[in-house]
Design brief:
Helices cover 42% and strands 13% of the residues. The radius of gyration is 22 Å and the shape is globular.
C-alpha cells in the first residue's frame, strides 16, 4: 500500500496518539480509522457513529474470532426456572426486552 505525507493539526495528532494507545493502534492507524468512521457516517447519516465504529472494528477481526448472530425473538427465547410453589414456570423474552411469566 502506498503512503503519502499529509499535514495534520498537532492537536489532532496528540488526540490520535492518546486514542491509539487505548485502542492498541498506531497513530497512523487511529487517524485512518477515524477517517473511515467519518466517511461511513457521511454516507449513512441515519446510523449512529458508535454503531459504525463497532461495525468497522468487527469487520477488521479475523473470521475465526467472529461469533454467529442469534436473533432474540419471543418465539425462540425461553428460559425455565424452578420456583418454590410451582415446579417450573417459563420466562419468555418479549419484544420489549422485558420478562413475563407463563404459568
Amino acid at each position: 500500500m502506498a503512503t503519502i505525507s499529509v499535514r495534520i493539526d498537532e492537536t489532532l495528532v496528540n488526540q490520535a496518539r492518546v486514542a491509539a494507545k487505548a485502542e492498541l493502534r498506531t497513530v497512523q492507524g487511529q487517524i485512518e480509522f477515524w477517517a473511515r468512521v467519518g466517511r461511513a457516517a457521511l454516507d449513512n447519516p441515519d446510523l449512529p457513529a458508535p454503531f459504525i465504529a463497532e461495525s468497522l472494528m468487527t469487520l477488521a477481526k479475523p473470521r475465526e474470532d467472529a461469533q454467529p448472530f442469534i436473533p432474540r425473538s419471543a418465539a425462540a427465547t425461553q428460559a425455565c426456572v424452578e420456583v418454590y410453589a410451582r415446579p417450573v414456570f417459563c420466562l419468555q423474552l418479549q419484544e420489549t426486552d422485558k420478562y413475563h411469566a407463563d404459568y
